[in-house]
Request: fold
Amino acid sequence: MSEKLMVKGNEAMAEAAIRAGCRLYFGYPITPQSELTEYMARRLPEVKGTFLQSESEVAAVNMIYGAASTGTRVMTSTSSPGFSLMQEGISYIAGAQLPCVFINVVRGGPGLGDIQPAQSDYFQGTKGGGHGDYRLITLAPSSIQEAVDLIPLAFELADKYRNPSLILADGMLGQMMEPVSFSEFKDLSELPDHSDWAMQGNEGREPHKITSFDIDPNKLEEMNMVYNEKYKEIMEKEVRYETTQVEDAEYIMVAYGTMGRILSNVLKMARSEGIKVGLFRPISLWPFPYKALNDLIKGKKGVLTVEMSTGQMVEDVKLGVNGEIPVNFYGRTGGVVPTPNEVLEQLKQMIGRGE
Amino acid sequence: MSEKLMVKGNEAMAEAAIRAGCRLYFGYPITPQSELTEYMARRLPEVKGTFLQSESEVAAVNMIYGAASTGTRVMTSTSSPGFSLMQEGISYIAGAQLPCVFINVVRGGPGLGDIQPAQSDYFQGTKGGGHGDYRLITLAPSSIQEAVDLIPLAFELADKYRNPSLILADGMLGQMMEPVSFSEFKDLSELPDHSDWAMQGNEGREPHKITSFDIDPNKLEEMNMVYNEKYKEIMEKEVRYETTQVEDAEYIMVAYGTMGRILSNVLKMARSEGIKVGLFRPISLWPFPYKALNDLIKGKKGVLTVEMSTGQMVEDVKLGVNGEIPVNFYGRTGGVVPTPNEVLEQLKQMIGRGE
Amino acid sequence: MSAIKTFKRPNALSSKEFTYCPGCHHGIVHRLIAEIIDEFEIQGKTLMVAPVGCSVFAYTFFDVDGTVAAHGRAPAVATGMKRARPNNIVFTYQGDGDLAAIGTAEIIHAANRGEKITTIFINNAIYGMTGGQMAPTTLLGMKTTTSPYGRKAENEGYPIHVCELLKETGGVAYLERVTVNSPNEVRKAKKALKKAFTAQIKGLGFSLVEVLSTCPTNWGMSPKEAMKWLDENMKKEFPVGVFVDKVGDEK
Amino acid sequence: MSAIKTFKRPNALSSKEFTYCPGCHHGIVHRLIAEIIDEFEIQGKTLMVAPVGCSVFAYTFFDVDGTVAAHGRAPAVATGMKRARPNNIVFTYQGDGDLAAIGTAEIIHAANRGEKITTIFINNAIYGMTGGQMAPTTLLGMKTTTSPYGRKAENEGYPIHVCELLKETGGVAYLERVTVNSPNEVRKAKKALKKAFTAQIKGLGFSLVEVLSTCPTNWGMSPKEAMKWLDENMKKEFPVGVFVDKVGDEK
Amino acid sequence: MNENILIIAGFGGQGVMLMGQVLATAAMIEDKHSTWLPSYGPEMRGGTANCTVVISEEMIGSPIADTPNSVIAMNIPSLLKFEEKLSPEGLLIINTSVVDREPSRKDIQVAKIDANKIAEDIGNLRVANMVILGAYVEKTGIISMESIEKAFERKLTGKKAKLIDMNIKAVKAGMKAVRN
Amino acid sequence: MNENILIIAGFGGQGVMLMGQVLATAAMIEDKHSTWLPSYGPEMRGGTANCTVVISEEMIGSPIADTPNSVIAMNIPSLLKFEEKLSPEGLLIINTSVVDREPSRKDIQVAKIDANKIAEDIGNLRVANMVILGAYVEKTGIISMESIEKAFERKLTGKKAKLIDMNIKAVKAGMKAVRN
Amino acid sequence: MAKYYVEIDKERCKGCGLCIEYCPKNVLSFSDEFNSKGYHPAQLHDMENCIGCGFCYMMCPDTAITVYKEKEKVETR
Amino acid sequence: MAKYYVEIDKERCKGCGLCIEYCPKNVLSFSDEFNSKGYHPAQLHDMENCIGCGFCYMMCPDTAITVYKEKEKVETR
Ligand SMILES: Cc1ncc(C[n+]2csc(CCOP(=O)(O)OP(=O)(O)O)c2C)c(N)n1
Ligand SMILES: Cc1ncc(C[n+]2csc(CCOP(=O)(O)OP(=O)(O)O)c2C)c(N)n1
Ligand code: SF4
Ligand code: SF4
Ligand code: SF4
Ligand code: SF4
Reply:
């Protein structure tokens, strides 16, 4: 690990990707993630990598498709509207089973919206904003250090399952600075070369075909069953979450990413007032930790889900809680970030209502 | 109502839109919905309407944005990959509160997939495949006649709530023929002119501004709250569904669209074997009939959800059932349509398992 | 201009202060458009489509019905409007990232269809709003935040010439490249804009005026230096002039 | 061609039967590409990107590593491949709907960047796979399922001239429009394709060959009639010839 | 459910789609419920095309079925593909002018008809499909000739109207050919 | 939680962002937890910019806060916007060279400093921000001068390295100016 | 004994007739039999006059044609 | 008593200096005061020599300038 450095989230994520062995980046500028693109433009040539600014996000996602189909470690980053434009391409990438990493530094929506932090792209990331039965391995860091640590994992999971990964961040994580230490540079010779399936030239072997297409529905269903088996395995093995002071808690707060770290303040404030509350923070949004949450809430009095949206993850929380105890929701949206005080207020009200 | 005619689903939907007063269509060909586009190209000039084939689905959705912002009744249609390309534009349209109608004649996915019927775009339609907190009023017809009847409703709801509507069909509904009778032509002078908000020239009034944008997060949140109030009202007033033989049923089958009509065969077969089963068919997928379903399943033994996907609506079914009774799922995907016999088999197995 | 030699803010502009940086040419072009709307007396039926870019707020700067399109899609949005309401005057205002990068397909097809709309294209060789990234029009060797070592043809290709491309499409009625780098050039630019709007009013087809503009902030220069740099560098790469004129001269 | 005057199926083709209609030119062009891959002995390092269109299955017709891109995005996909593996030979194969409609931005920017890829562009003036809708290259007056009364410039604009557009971008190394309407034209077409691949092999930049082709099925003609129609109508609108040649002549 | 489920299959150019549409339309004219579902997509090109027609007294749930009770095979691939799906006692109609093979199943009824020849005698090879339709109608009695004629009037309009008589002739010839 | 929450606000060109980064970096050097969060977006242009710096002994949850316990106002709009947010007993530092107004609240401590003048005396108006940083450090004692110097060494590298001395001078001058 | 021989893959052939159309010696024609796709494939009816120009090969969209010199096949790469 | 008068909206002015740069008579200059955005707005320091050419108006990106003929404002549309 490197010494601690004060780094902007966007730049830290870019550096982490490079240290994870990513030497190829395609992307298009958009606030609040542009510093990531710009860092790559500066840094990649220094490490013999290739940076290319695409003409659009539609082009970017298809460049990713092309690069990933050669088995090369590759990534892109964008923010909400840009990620929407990538949906067709992402569906193709998932269907063609290509490993690659996406970063969505979410901003307020819908439409042009604004450029402030938000969590209103949860459905898009976890349920599939594109067409068809596919999933993205979706990881949500709550600090720059965690982002830097999750990025190599995102690449490894993408390779292991031949499935795209998504880092779901937000404008605050992208724009803020905090101390972070980086892992060492990955030895490029250790990267999987994927020569068993990738398009690298068929000298001395049968040609490799990369596709999400089969005109015969039975064959296409077989392809879907292959994805589905993967997804089942991922749901079993790759669930990640963090709990804080849940053991003696009567109430559980659930939040992810930036909201999750802010709730750690609320937790301290509430506990200092003697309120028995705990925090459940999903790190993998897909696969969502349904079972862990369900085990956790046994015997608790209620759940408060807090999001920077009008309520998206709360549906997964309800699926996890499965009607066993009340699930409440508090959210701000459009780029407004709930402050610890207002969330504490909500928590007290909910307890007051005896939920 | 016209005399019964034998019409292809795609063409029937187009004719229904024209009779509902739609004289403006922008779209891009894609199987299995191209006959809808082609019918519009043929028919609109006959009724002094305007047809334009756009250069892409991205262009199409933005042409819709422009036309709808003038308060003109307008629509487009596409199939899965094309609908994915429209996600950014749809998010803008929802944010700018523009009334218009989308038709997605769903095919097998993900990616290029195939061109056979599927229901694997449920999440994309109902949860928002685009970025931000927005919703589409999503209606799912199970027969050509129902499609023809739902299309005027889709336009009316879009106007009433200033929100885009989506008709979620599939390749079977688009390609098959069955007898259908059309309602009379709507008198164009009865269409709402939307002159109170639309862009029509500010002669003698303050300029109208149409936007999904506000750089100030507090103002953007206010805009979101306006949408949210609408959504609440829609969830209260616009829930639609159909039930068959549910009263004495011990088990409930849930399916929508094409799958719903196929289950009506299964229902007959099962009943003829003395199996007490009923059918719940959501017609509005958003707003989803959570409460109606929850009321319905009280005292039943189990639910079987059947979809032409690996399981998407089943999450809403579970949210509706809220853990009160077991929810089972059976699905085929990639363009494969479950036959009545195989579903009956599944039903029996589930009952056998005593769920 | 009105009979008496007097200069004042045109009515077609709202009272809002522009959000542009000091010396940015966006403001000059806004004023020219507004003057033409006044002179043609079309304020009451003009619809404007702003882009995503520094001019994203432009739909609030003009006192006409206005909207902001998704990044790059203004020509498609304008097409939808014009097809819905052929009697309105519809214009789009776009930057080089918006029009020449992500919006390439939309502008080419709108031009080729001869959509009866007018596009004002601000070419400042950079992405302004997002903080100075490379644009398709960025000059070779020019340093931007995404071409930090200077744009190289080998990696990033060549500056795109929008007028030269569009002149190859069938539907263009008026097409000119201008500058607003001096009072005299401002006058010429206004004449070009007038012809562009005339093309639409006469229903001749698609019209576009490209304005070479400064971005002092992201070029890292003073407004003065920026205009000098434009004179010495941009005009060489992007020669001003008329590319298509089906309007002819008014008497 | 090999010393002995003998003609047989090139090795670079897989054994799969083409899925094209009787008399469709797609098949002729496939064979020419395969012959060149054989002659240049690059089969082992060639990567092919098929489009969405009737040639969607093309990635299975060639015995090289292959994929199918999203509709219109083949140049972006090929860019991703070539940037990842500069030593491979990458070519895309696209129809006119794929390349000149939805894929307009991708082809223009790939050409402008001078991506070292080769694109084979099949211009049959119609959307074949989806059943005969209007293409951007559809001739004026031509009836298609989405221009049932004949294409009108007033509403649908003009046939797009891809080579004429692309010649205005900086990165093109070879650009030619050909036909395969007779044995002699087939020979010329092959020469053009050879030069296009040579441009890539020599690293000179982007290369594209446009082939005017028939779609007997959707034109509603016999293969013979279709070729006559192409001679008499398409060649007038789309003159064959070399637009850019930075390759020069081999000795 | 007493649904009549028919699959018609043949080469692209043999007019199998129109046969099915005429039948479904005729059923509608008799106020029956009917659906017509085509195979679709590029694979139709050259390859074989087929459509499924369901006719019933009640509302029709599934327009597809795993076990049709009638199959019309206009070419060999269609025979190979659909004979096995046919329900026991089901009706298989074969166009012997193109299909020079025997069906393998013994638990079904088979009707053979030299449709191309009959059509040529009538004077137009292209109505071979309607000859076979006639055979099907005769064998099943599912639809009246009158309704078929009405269906033609709806389907063949404008320039095609003059073809109606020839098509009716073909249907009748087909009926006659299998009458015994 | 004993978190120090500081908001620094001023015109775009006044270097408020760098001030915050130097402070947060210095805190990191002292193995404290710290976060720096800027206002961002086009509205910064011309308008006012601000950043929030949180320094704490414990892990920092929220990098934003509704009630900062210190505010540095480099111009009038910033004073108007942030004075009210300040917590009771909070510290307000005003750059009097630009802000010719009195704060309205009485329940806070106020430190005024003629930063531009002091900076000009040192020889460079552009270090006025560091003069004020000095005042803040002096008033709060939150960070040692040594850590500030180390922070400069990290932030001002390459061509900018030669500016380090001048910046240190400015900080010290600021400290002196508010010492009493 | 002819110097050239044209072999036509009946199953690949779709009966488009281009080879027949462009054969300078008119040695090709349609056969009466159907192939399994239902097409009448092309055939060489007049071997004697085939000059091995390869025009049929060049124009065949379905790579159904191979042209040989001499009776016995000459291996080519 | 001058024939022309240039009015500069201090709050709109961003001190870019283009009017000053292009004034053929050099009658414009920066004022020392700040406006609320922190800019030094332009001012007319030599009314006598203003010829009312409108160059400053034409070059002003922020529509901060109005040029009047005569002292009293002339109404224009
Ligand atoms: C889909 C999408 N991608 C990217 C962005 C971010 N973005 C906003 S403006 C812009 C480019 C602005 O540059 P230009 O068009 O040249 O206009 P300027 O700001 O220079 O006037 C970009 C990339 C966006 N808003 N939406
Ligand atoms: C995003 C998307 N839109 C539309 C389609 C449907 N589609 C498939 S091929 C095609 C056009 C084919 O025409 P062309 O590119 O000219 O190739 P051809 O079939 O004529 O060889 C279209 C519109 C698609 N597959 N994906
Ligand atoms: S950033 Fe550039 S283009 Fe944008 S307002 Fe400032 S000067 Fe103008
Ligand atoms: S439809 Fe046209 S382009 Fe497609 S295969 Fe048939 S003839 Fe060729
Ligand atoms: S050209 Fe080929 S496909 Fe056509 S008829 Fe001759 S052999 Fe058959
Ligand atoms: S040109 Fe306008 S903004 Fe610039 S200094 Fe002059 S008055 Fe101010």
